[in-house]
User: Fold these one by one.
Assistant:
Number 1:
Amino acid sequence: MEKYVINGGTTLYGEVEISGAKNAAVAIIPAALMVDGVCVIENMPQISDTEMLLTILRELGAKIRYLNRSTVEIDCTDVCMQDAPYDLMRKIRASYYLIGAMLGRFGHAKTTMPGGCNFGVRPIDQHIKGMTALGADVDVKGGFVYADARDGKLHGARIYLDKVSVGATMNIILAAALAQGRTIIENAAREPHIVDLANFLNSMGADIRGAGTDTVKINGVEKLHGGSYAIIPDQIEAGTYMVAAAATGGEVLIKNVIPRHLECISAKLRETGTIVLENGDSVLVKGASALRKINLKTLPYPGFPTDMQPPMCALLCVANGTSVITEGVYDNRFKYVNELRKMGAEVQVDGRVCVVEGGKRLSGAPVAACDLRAGAAMVIAGMCAAGTTVVEDVRFIERGYENFVGKLNALGADIRIVDEPEESNGREKILSMMG
Ligand code: UD1
């Protein structure tokens, strides 16, 4: 039961290096299952979601070894269709990519219904619509998803998504890459990680065009061959450090980023008075002496990312004035606001709208990380607060941020990771204090 103990009132200064994109990596690892040969994947983030997916592949028979800290070699030549570790699959959202990857490789798949962060109901009906259109019979029962290509092979189809879904777009790309004929996905999501998945598959021999637009065309190929690929930097990790720098009034150079992917975040930060300067593959963020209120609405890319909504809410708690946040992607993504209130934040939620009365000095409190990005928001609030904040359930944070505490401490934060056994006798084991 790890916790973060944060002594607040610190200002972040210095440089931080961004890791590979979680949401690209969690699709690229299942994609490696479809490759006939060895994939060398660079810039693999060291987070628990990628570790779990690599473990699932290993248990299916893949040979996996790290060539260095962030480069992993995956050889799925000997993988065969067998029962997978369903307990692991249930823990992560991205296990749904195994449906597309297994269907593509074996013509059938059995996975669990995906887990992941709880933002209310998160259906996978658009994934199922896509697989069905490609010629699979899909059945959901007893918490499992069973999918079988009707004649042993998938066939290209024209698929219109009723919702702009990142997961459905990527899953259909996976399944269609090895299908017979041409697939066209209309009303596709356009996130950078979709382009990254398509680039990965294309570099292994796939024929995918239009990723990053709302129409993706996939000409199925016979097989994919091995090769090397480097995952793009994580847009949301970079955005989190940008917001943390701005909220604490610091000055941080965020390195290994693609500034174009950050434009939606940079634009809203500039409205708060924060200075954001792009330079090559880095951005410099300088916090304003007094942050200003803003209104924002989350939307699919290139709109403001829903995953940046909780960190931005933490920042707006310490900005001057009343800000309004509208959640445009999920029905129920403000549950963490109760935790911010424990720190003295004045935030009201009505459905998908959240009103933040800013300008309050937050005070440290015991809070929980309700989910991955909510956890990052608690840490940012804790760094801004007076006194000590204890963040529980940090396993959620470790799903998606590589060495979060180490990177923040290297910038001047004061955060300890404390591992307290559930049946604690009150003694704390300090695991990590320095960056
Ligand atoms: C992915 C990301 C997550 C991010 C989200 C939106 C991964 C592993 N997770 O989640 O971090 O917050 O994109 O950028 O990459 N929907 C349906 N039916 C479906 C699929 C989705 O109704 O079949 C709805 C969802 O409930 C949600 C909206 O569509 O309201 C967008 O969801 P989607 O883009 O699919 O998100 P995920 O792929 O689950």
Note: The chain is about 30% helix and 30% strand.
Number 2:
Amino acid sequence: MPNLSDIGTIKDILKRHQFSFSKALGQNFLVNPTVCPRMAQACAAPQGEGVLEIGPGIGVLTQELSACFQKVVCFELDTRLLPVLAETLCECPNVFVRNEDFLKADLKKVLQTEFPGMRVSVCANLPYYITSPILMCLLESRLPLDNITVMVQKEAADRICAEPGTKLSGALTAAVHYYATAEKLFSVSRGSFMPAPNVDSAVIQLHIRQKPPVQVADEAFFFRVIQASFAQRRKTAVNSLSAGLGIAKADIAALLQSLGKDERVRAETFTLQDFADISNRLYKG
Ligand code: SAM
């Protein structure tokens, strides 16, 4: 089996398959041999059984996952990578590659059919152009996942792992923390990838909560309130909520005042409980 911890081997495989990187598909492949074993081990602890990978690329992380898990199922959208993966994973009989768009997959069905009765984790070096949709898709489907261990851009990692109500928090922070706890595991420099992106990255791990930390009358409306609050980041929460929800500024200001908030308050200071209070009070049923 080709040794993908060797950059010369990676370059040789890509050349033989006349592979050209697609920017549109977020193709920055890992070439730092220390990163994938760390990711796979962090994800597998304490005893992973099955793992879903999004975007195996040429299979560098997949080889590591194959060694740590009983079964690996990967979603790779780029058909050109299938012959490459057939070569690099030829000695990994527990790996199954699906040539599908992960965002269009029926994940509940995939879990039931591919991993019956198994504990399942997610591990991936995410295509950065769809970081938020992938995370929200994983969290909203309420799958019984052990953990989600993913590489994302450093800025996204900082946002996701920030506490709601602190300076770095945004809509994704609040949405992720509703479903899961988030922890930054380690940083990865841009030079660890081929081609090197313009930003550094980090590996984060999410653990899905048994139940949300706040009670909301309507989840869809709760998420609308979060989106609206952050839609115009430089504006006050009164202005953003009024514009986003089509409610008079005076009514929003009165509501915030009744919750003990100044009318110039900004959304990044809101905790999850604040978002729950605001959405529960505005929700009309
Ligand atoms: N895992 C490899 C690595 O670490 O070297 C590749 C990671 S690369 C950042 C992202 C991978 O996701 C690419 O192989 C790309 O083709 C694939 N991809 C992009 N969009 C996808 C989608 N919607 N569904 C499945 N795979 C996708």
Note: Strands lie at 29-30, 50-54, 71-75, 95-98, 120-125, 145-153, 180-188, 193-194, 201-208.
